[in-house]
Amino acid sequence: IITARFDLNVASRIRGKLLDAVLSENQAVKELGKFSMARTQSWRDDVRAGMQALLLQNQGKINGIWASFDGQAYIIDDLLQGQGLKNGEIVLVSIDGGPETDLRIADPQSMLMATVAIPFEGMGRAAVEAKGAWWYANEAAARQVRQTLLDIDFGNRVAYDSVTHNPPTGATVLHGTPPV
Fold it and tell me: Positive or negative CA dihedral for 56, 57, 63, 69?
């Protein structure tokens, strides 16, 4: 296989480390080459140029391509189709999921075979719901937090009024009023 990575991004770098761990356990799969995009503003051009070079260097030896996120996979998919490759000749997989990815996977011309969908919105919603459930289940703790909420004013601690949630009269507050 060859891989498209993005080592400057923490999430993508972790994905690459996970792939490395999987490959270390499967000695039958060899990574022929890897490309890590460096530029963020013109990342599409960066991926296109880097993957074109890897594809040329390893022509005829590639059975699969792993992309660290779906955007890279779209560019690679377009490159492969532009070279006249047909669905199934090279397996292309990536990570993220989403409507465009689903369409490409369903497209009989596309090389993109699979993605690992990460439901970011659902994870965020679950985190907010869990925090809200904790907050309401622990009303006594929440009341204590509100009563002792502090802000820093040039090194001086400013205690907020537990009823109005406002700082004492005359206090200068750097960050506005606290949340209720």
Answer: negative
